[in-house]
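#structure-requests
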Amino acid sequence: MIRSSRRTAAGPRPIEGWAALTASEAKVARLVAAGHTDRSAAAALVVSPHTVNTHLASIFRKLPVNSRVELTRLVPAEADVEPADAG
């Protein structure tokens, strides 16, 4: 059972699972799953790497993951994010 404690304009938001992520957290999750580092994700989102790291900590609390690899496996396949450049 998913508990809910936060309210959004659309109603209560679950406190765990993919639906619990904020829009910013979801963007960070997709970028990290696509292979971005904290620095490159920060540049893509025009935020600091510290902000990306803070979002990742929140993502790890809300999703059943403990690493970037586990997060990558969990991100929906339909995520529309470009992969990170190899060089």
